[in-house]
């Protein structure tokens, strides 16, 4: 039975993109955007580098309220997309976890409209939309998150 995600409290949201479908990958890059609708949000980017992925590189920044609202409108349709536990059905080696008041979705969990156990799965249009969302999140992180200074 799939894990049930409860909506975040007080209208908070989180969008987490891990650039490795396997969450146990030591060299994964993780982009996390946390905030509330109609307010600025925080962007955290972490990645591991070096031998054995021992070095943690971190960046952080913020999104303006307009960017937050645009992001939320972009990710909301994914809530009805098919997904399958443990399988990268979108073929991007990316794991996207959405937790908003309207949508609780994870492309690595069994959920969504299409039955993947049978013959149905994501359509080419679903795959393109997923790709567009992933690219938009990556672009936001590149533009807004800057290296931390000590």
Describe this structure in words.
The chain has 150 residues and is an alpha+beta fold. 21% of the residues lie in helices and 27% in strands. The protein has helices at residues 65-75, 124-144; strands spanning 13-18, 29-35, 41-49, 55-63, 95-99, 104-106, 146-147. It has a 7-stranded antiparallel sheet. β5 and β6 (104-106) form a beta hairpin. Mean pLDDT is 83; it is low at 114-119.
What characteristics describe this protein?
7-stranded antiparallel β-sheet, alpha+beta, single chain, 7 strands, 150 residues, globular, 27% strand
Topology, pairings included?
Layout: E1 13-18, E2 29-35, E3 41-49, E4 55-63, H1 65-75, E5 95-99, E6 104-106, H2 124-144, E7 146-147
Antiparallel strand pairs: 1-2, 1-5, 2-3, 3-4, 4-7, 5-6
Globular, elongated, flat, extended or rod-shaped: what is the shape? globular
List the strand order in the largest sheet.
Answer: 6-5-1-2-3-4-7
Order of helices and strands: EEEEHEEHE
- Report the mean per-residue pLDDT as an integer: 83
Percentage of residues in helical conformation: 10-25%
Summarize the structure.
With 150 residues, the chain is of the alpha+beta class.
């Amino acid at each position: 039975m799939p894990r049930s995600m409860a909506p975040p409290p007080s209208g908070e949201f989180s969008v987490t993109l891990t650039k490795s479908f396997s969450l146990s990958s030591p060299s994964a890059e993780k982009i996390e955007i946390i905030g509330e609708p109609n307010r600025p949000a925080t962007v955290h980017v972490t990645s591991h580098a070096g031998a054995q992925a021992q070095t943690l590189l971190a960046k952080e920044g913020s999104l303006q309220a307009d960017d937050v609202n645009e992001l939320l409108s972009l990710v909301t349709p994914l809530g009805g997309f098919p997904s399958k536990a443990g399988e990268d059905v979108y073929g991007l080696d990316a794991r996207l976890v959405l937790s908003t008041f309207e949508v609780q979705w994870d492309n690595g969990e069994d959920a969504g409209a299409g039955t993947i156990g049978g013959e149905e799965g994501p359509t080419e249009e679903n795959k393109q939309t997923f790709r567009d969302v992933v690219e938009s999140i990556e672009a936001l992180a590149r533009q807004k998150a800057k290296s931390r200074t000590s």
